[in-house]
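# step 3/5: fold
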Amino acid sequence: MADVAKDQGKSIDAKAIEEKLGIPVIPFSATDIKSYDVFYEALSKAISQKREEC
């Protein structure tokens, strides 16, 4: 719901959330198909890193 937050004049600090949670955080709108590329790239990177750790 990053799009809703933006419409309300709010911002989401994804980097701060990443640091706190220790996992990738990708803010995007589910209705914006163009923004899925960033999500898929992060997902692929996370899967690759997990395989290297195993």
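# step 4/5: annotate
The helical segments are 2-7, 14-21, 36-53.
# step 5/5: archive (pending)
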